[in-house]
Amino acid sequence: MRVAVVGATGQAGSVMREILESRGFPLDDVRFFASARSAGTRLIYAGTEIVVEDAESADFSGIDIALSAAGATSSRILSPRLASAGAVVVDNSSAWRMDDEVPLVVPEVNSHALDVIPKGIVANPNCTTMVAMPVIKPLHDAAGLRSLIVTTFQAVSGGGRDGVAELAKELDQSAGRAGELALDGHAISMGPPVKFPGVIAHNVLPLAGSIVEDGLGETDEEKKYRNESRKILELPDLPVSCTCTRVPVFTGHSAAITASFSSDLTPAQAIEVLRSAPSVVLSDLPTPLDAAGTDPSLVGRIRRAEGVENGLSFFVVGDNLRKGAALNAVQIAEVLLEKRF
Hints:
This protein is of the alpha/beta class. The protein folds into two domains: 2-124 and 325-340, Rossmann fold, CATH 3.40.50.720; 129-320, 2-Layer Sandwich (Dihydrodipicolinate Reductase, domain 2). 33% of the residues lie in helices and 23% in strands. It contains ten helices and 14 strands. A six-stranded parallel beta sheet has the order 5-2-1-6-7-8, with helices on both faces. A six-stranded mixed beta sheet has the order 10-9-11-14-13-12. Helix 1 links the parallel strand 1 and strand 2. The longest helix has 19 residues, at 322-340. The relative contact order is 0.16.
């Protein structure tokens, strides 16, 4: 079993390497790829030093499974090259998610989609969507999902290392002066934001992603949530209303969700359904701090949604770098081992 990690030196790629090793993925050989500027870097895997190769010029022959953490632009070039060389590619970017010939997979939800992979590429969902799917699918199976209303609270690591650096910088700038905001009601003066559309430290930005120029006023993150939920759950007409926000949290995406079902599902019944759901942990107070560095989706605050037919409201949190990206990719690879190798 010969495995590759593309984008191995980046944020998601680094977590992929860690999870492959910690889960004891049964590989005989591993290769790491990155951009030309990172080529030549030496990384340790299972006690062995691996030299990072330049993905643009590399020969991909002999690779069985490739986990790609490259960006969408690079993935549109690299993933077909890897597939043409014989690899099954698990692509973490947004490039292939809505391609009808590319399965979009959360193993706990729709692993059957891996039975047919026409292009040799499997898409990993967006980190925000992914965190909720292990929770929503068993509830859908129990009562028939009819609609979703979602507000997300997305960590800055969803914006990559630049997002993490921007929050850290702003927190440093405001260190020792945070009380000013509470004392006089004025915002703390900080340098102009670069990564996000406004200052993120001590703040909440009611916009995550970029506005899509289609006249609807939605961001690409909000459209991803709708479209990916429909594809993963195999509900092509599912009404999904989503507001994506950015919060001053380093790791862990959260979502407040109100779901409507075809049949009545009491909070107590929902709790029993979720108690045995794979990759789901019930929590009285699910928070990003609790989720960071862990694998399952945490869910709590399960209650009736007033004014919504057969409605339930709940709060879901998950580590956006693990289950939201790297872990799900490795889990897909584990299912591929069972199905294809």
